[in-house]
Design goal:
Low-confidence stretches: none
Helix content: 40-55%
Strand content: 5-15%
Strand order of the largest sheet: 1-4-5-8
Number of strands: 8
CATH superfamily of the largest domain: Butyryl-CoA Dehydrogenase, subunit A, domain 3
Family: Belongs to the acyl-CoA dehydrogenase family.
Distance between the termini: 46 Å
Radius of gyration: 21 Å
Largest sheet: 4 strands, mixed
Protein name: Short-chain specific acyl-CoA dehydrogenase, mitochondrial
Number of domains: 3
Pfam families: Acyl-CoA_dh_1, Acyl-CoA_dh_M, Acyl-CoA_dh_N
CATH topology of the largest domain: Butyryl-CoA Dehydrogenase, subunit A, domain 3
Keywords: FAD, Flavoprotein, Oxidoreductase
Structural class: alpha+beta
Enzyme class: oxidoreductase
CATH class of the largest domain: Mainly Alpha
CATH architecture of the largest domain: Up-down Bundle
Order of helices and strands: HHHHHEEEEEEEEHHHHHH
Length: 395
């Protein structure tokens, strides 16, 4: 694990900071610190334009190999980029799912034709992706997927429903886990399909959350289709590929996520100092615990990133989702307690939530999406610690 940076790395840090200072301004100034979790509905078109601006500066896909259109930056330089991006208030990335999930998966498991056809749109910031995993009866239990697909006349015909699909209404493509082997159960018979969103067989229905926003969606497939060439790997490889993708999800961008958390914590601390809440010994202790928790998160991430970045889920990575989601949910509670009675007030119509109010409400879901905390504890026990698997009831 490396917790310091070389002189060359620090020069690179300055390069990143200078570029952001010179470009995250003017028409992009309103995007600063916007578009993160709970705020993803804001400025979607402007944030897509920002993706194209990043691409002009070659700041998309910085960790990808040069043959795939990336810069091939070292892990330390990728960490620096994501940290400086968040420090500068860089907006939530509209291209995150393509760059962090779909792209690395296509690069690792796709064929040459698929890489040539699909990766450039991600690098250029012109093609956007969403994730078709969760279903009404298969959220964290991905092996219970019911969406099915059959190969007919050179095309996969898809029927089923996905849910909690982030930014599906803004996406050009969806990667879909579907059951392609009739009668199969569990993780067998699943395939990994890339599906264009702009077709009559797909309908997207927004899900309004208690924040009043609708970045999540239900997606319905009614004889939707995709070309046979859009299957990644072989039929039945879906489970293996899906698990590798979840490994990419725990990748280097987690350091950027932590800088966003640091921005939120700093805001809470500033308010505590201003309104006197920092004088309360219990609140002061909770602020200190939050600060310590963020450092622990960083060091574990650096340890997690010390190995090969091939999508394999290292033991250190199994605790990450459980740790950050619990920490962030607690930060939301802490923010409300620091605000006191102001946490329950809005200034005037149209009664837009403040950033910290949105943080509190949205972070209630942190322990559910991306794998519920209960599922994460099972993963830690069974895969990381080698404990006996949970008993399964026979039908």
């Amino acid at each position: 694990m490396k917790i310091s940076f070389s002189e060359q790395d620090e020069r690179f840090r300055q390069e990143v900071a200078d570029w952001l200072a010179g470009n995250l301004c003017g028409e992009f100034e309103p995007l600063r610190f916007r578009g993160g979790p709970g705020d993803e509905h804001m400025y979607p078109q402007q944030r897509k334009a920002w993706e194209r601006k990043l691409a002009e500066g070659r700041w998309t896909c910085v960790g990808w190999a040069p043959e795939h259109g990336g810069r091939g930056l070292s892990i330390s330089q990728q960490v620096i980029f994501h940290e400086e991006y968040a420090r500068a208030g860089g907006p939530g990335r509209m291209g995150h799912i393509g760059e962090g999930l779909a792209g690395p998966t296509i690069a690792a498991f796709g064929n040459d034709e698929q890489r040539r056809r699909l990766l450039p749109g991600i690098v250029s910031g012109t093609q956007f992706w969403c994730q078709g995993y969760s279903e009404p009866s298969a959220g964290s239990d991905l092996a219970n997927v019911k969406t099915r697909a059959s190969l007919e006349h050179g095309r996969w015909v898809i029927n089923g429903q996905k849910v909690w699909t982030s930014l599906a209404h803004e996406s050009d493509w969806c990667f879909v886990i579907a059951r392609t082997e009739p009668g199969s159960v569990g993780h067998r018979g699943l395939s990994f399909l890339l599906v264009p969103m702009a077709q009559a067989g797909i309908s997207v229905r927004p899900i309004e959350q208690m924040t009043g926003t609708s970045e999540f969606n239900e997606v319905f497939f009614d004889n939707a289709s995709t070309d046979a060439a859009n299957l990644i790997g072989q039929p039945g490889d879906g489970w293996k590929i899906a698990m590798a993708l979840l490994g990419f999800e725990r990748g280097v961008s987690t350091l950027g996520q932590q800088m966003q958390f640091a921005n939120e914590l700093n805001e809470v601390i500033a308010i505590a100092k201003a309104n006197g809440a920092a004088r309360d010994p219990l609140l002061r202790q909770r602020l200190a615990e939050a600060w310590c928790g963020l450092r622990i998160m960083r060091y574990n991430s650096l340890r997690m990133l010390s190995g090969a970045q091939d999508g394999a889920l290292r033991k250190e990575a199994t605790i990450y989702k459980l740790f950050w989601s619990s920490w962030h949910a607690n930060l939301g509670k802490l923010a409300m307690d620091v605000l006191g009675t102001d946490a329950e007030l809005l200034e005037a119509a149209p009664y837009q939530l403040t950033r910290l109010q949105s943080l509190y409400l949205f972070s209630r879901a942190d322990t559910l999406y991306g794998g519920s905390n209960e599922i994460q504890r099972n993963i830690i026990a069974e895969r990381a610690l080698g404990m006996p698997k949970e008993p399964r009831l026979r039908p």
